[in-house]
Amino acid sequence: MKPTLLVLAAGMASRYGSMKQIQGFGPGGETIMDYSIYDAIRAGFGKVVFIIRKDFADNFKKIIEPKIKGRIEIDYVYQELDSFTGGYKAPENRTKPWGTAHAVLCSKTVIREPFAVINADDFYGSDAFIKAADFLNNEIHDGLFSIIGYDLSKTLSENGSVSRGVCEVNNEGYLVSIVERTKIYREGNKIVYDDTDGKHEVSSDSKVSMNLWCFPVSAFDIIQKTFLEFLKERGTDPKAEFFIPIIGDQFIKEGGKIKLVPTNAQWFGVTYKEDAPEVEKNLRALVSKGEYPERLWS
Q1: Is the pLDDT of residue 296 over 90?
Q2: Contact, 9 vs 50, CB < 8 A?
């Protein structure tokens, strides 16, 4: 059974200011997602599931399907505030979805095989998909998840702060903890993050999660249970988000292991509109090197 790729594309894109998930950046107008799906197909994934918002579903499908239909199985899931909440009613002042881990939970009805999770607007590199597919095909089991780990210094934006799951790993290569730092940025020769306690330095070679996770189907059970606990504790906070690293920490606490599979790939993405020219430049460079055809789907 081939693994599935789950693409998180339901974000509001508030910082970027447009529907960046379907904006073209490649020489032939390819989206960042196109490159991820192309790499996933080459690595042996058999299905792609998109988590999107209903209000741009038609536009999204018109752009995506003509390119990849027939190349890989396709399915869609909508992330709604009342999905999998056990009847919990969101506060009236809650306007944004519950977060990335809730988005994953929303795909429970359509995924029946080991799967990898990615963000729609991040470029991960072919090495990451090869390693993810290898793990999903040969290593994964109910007691073992994985993340593809990137060097922090290779995942920053020059145009503002970013959110990163900073990993602590033991000598055997398994996660001890993963903490979502929502404001990481360069300051001179240092990399720092801000939180409620102030400013803190973090090592440039720290391994971080770019939300490329590998899960068995049984992960949905722990995500559902942890989400209901999250709602009880933080559901009244209109800005609280149920991030995937929360699942990772809970899984470790319950005796599970998460293998960090390192990649030396250079991440890039469009967190801010000002990032777009650099993304276009990077994609053209990869095409020039022969890593991708000039027209992905021709």
Answers
A1: yes
A2: yes
- C-alpha–C-alpha distance, residues 36 and 50, integer Å: 12
Structure tokens at 236: 């009244």
Q: What is the 8-class DSSP label of residue 46?
A: -
pLDDT digit string (tens) for 79-121?
888 888 888 888 888 888 899 999 999 999 999 999 999 999 8
3-state helix, strand, coil in the chain (%, to 5): 30, 30, 40
Whether 219 contacts 247, CB under 8 Å: yes
Residue 126 lies in a domain: yes
Looking up tokens 């995942």, which residue turns up? 155
Residue 139 forms part of a structural domain: yes
What distance in Å separates the CA atoms of residue 170 and residue 49, rounded to the nearest whole number? 33
> Quick check: is 120 in a domain?
yes
* Token pair recorded at residue 32: 């960042």
Entry pTM: 0.90
Give the number of domains in the chain: 1
Q: Are 154 and 124 in contact (CB under 8 A)?
A: no
End-to-end alpha-carbon separation of the chain, Å? 27
For residue 230, give its domain range: 4-288
For the record, the structure tokens of 168 come out as 């602590």
What is the CATH number for 29? 3.90.550.10
The answer to whether residues 148 and 43 touch, using CB atoms and an 8 Å cutoff, is no
Closest C-alpha to 101, from 83, 126, 127, 75: 83
The H or E element that residue 281 is part of is helix 276-288
d(CA 244, CA 264): 22
The string of pLDDT tens digits covering residues 124-161 is 999 999 999 999 999 999 999 999 999 998 899 888 99
CB 222 within 8 A of CB 216: no
In a domain, 111, yes or no: yes
Q: How far apart are CA 23 and CA 111, in angstroms?
A: 27
Q: What gap in Å lies between CA 242 and CA 27, rounded to an integer?
A: 36
Q: Which amino acid is at 148?
A: I
